[in-house]
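SUBJECT: A protein chain and its fold
Encoding: whole-number codes for local backbone shapes
RECORD BEGINS BELOW THIS LINE
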Amino acid sequence: MSTTEWWRSAVIYQVYPRSFADTDGDGIGDVQGIRAHLGHLRDLGVDAIWMSPWYPSPMADAGYDVADFRDIDPVFGTLAQAEALIEEAHAVGIRMIVDIVPNHISSEHPWFKAALASPDAPERDYFWFRPGRGENGDEMPTNWRGEFGGTTWTRTPDGSWYLHLFTPEQPDLNWDHPDVRAEFESILRFWFDRGVDGIRIDSAALLFKDPSLPEVVEGAKHPFHDLDEVHDVYRGWRRVAEEYPDRALIGEVWMPEVERFANYLRPDELHAAFNFDFLGCAWDPRLMRECVDRTLDAHRAVGAPATWVLSNHDVTRHVTRYGRADTTFSFDNNLDGTPVDLMLGTRRARAAALLSLSLPGGTYIYQGEELGLWENENIPPASYQDPMWARRGHSRDGCRVPLPWSGDEPPFGFSTADPWLPQLPEWKDLTVEAQSGDPTSMLELYRAAIALRRAEDGLHRPAMSWLDLGPEVLAYTRGDRFACVVNMSGSPIPLPDHETSLLASGPLDGDRLPQDTAVWLRLTA
């Protein structure tokens, strides 16, 4: 582990705890399962783990409805076990990042229970309680549409309404209140004191709302997306982080305007933010190159490291996306019955691994990505647990299916019970056990690429330069002699002069690179 600014070039692995590994036989992953499989992450070579929420929660939104930020939900284990995991991860050279959800809390949180109990409770001011419109106040205060779709206001027994940009079980906090700000700064210190190395900030741009509650009007300032006041909160968080050595703040910032996105990465705010522009980009050489340039230019302007993300717990796995005619991601192009060519998607995913792991900055790997898992699009709707399904007709459950560790049939060593979401029998060749030691497997490709990333001098340099190998090819150098070439054309291409091939995502055809294949080269001196 580097000792300073590790987040600038780290390979960070997202653990979705419900689906990583189960040790108590209830079909749901737990902290002990993560501890038991730290060797997998050590052998993979990652620098840090990002832990999706593991706090006490009614699980209305898979733990993103938090009832207590200072404990662990019993379904996952105990705080003592979490502290042991942090210590054990550090012992094998892996840092820990926890997920903090500042926009809202659970309706079961003590604050909200107190706010509901009495209109005069001081906790009432911690939320967005408003009178309704209309003669009897029975109309919602606004017609805002929720982030999961549907309405954003719920009426209480006393006749007032409260705001929730997500589900009714996730009431939004009022970040104008100093007690809310003080509480979250205290939460940061709680986890930093336990050795956590970073904080991933959920829905980082949504905290503030225009108190006049205007409707959303195209072309006008949005009433709750990216309000300027949010930056003062993150300046305060940055001051907290700087009380501890080498801590990082990493934002989930969905922002179409790259200049507004970069504002979150100014030197006194967040250290890094997720690059959703890259995640949603089509498998297209022109669009991908424009995305890379746009990303690097925006981050360079504020002195922040770029990040490269292909999948996470909210999006269709990229093996599936890259196997479709439409290779972009949106919440409208999942579960639409579009045919998927899994062989094509896997080939492109292998190439994308070498692309994302060789660009300047940090790289994020979503659990199962290193195994080449694809989306489970065969989950019966009656088994969906994602609240987005009921409100928007889109389920994220297909990317959250538990990992296959070993064996020839479900539950593939994940648990001794039926997993909380069904695994695909076709994954029998994608288990960690089946892929380990197979030089052609996705797992060994990731292991080799991450090891080379550590060893290769050029990949420690901050800059890159494009190579012109034609409009259908992405090619660039890092340092004096390292090059990555990704063939996105429809036929093999000749490779540039080179001394040796360091790693390829698929078999080479002599000195020609097949389509949808990537290679790392040592260039001729």
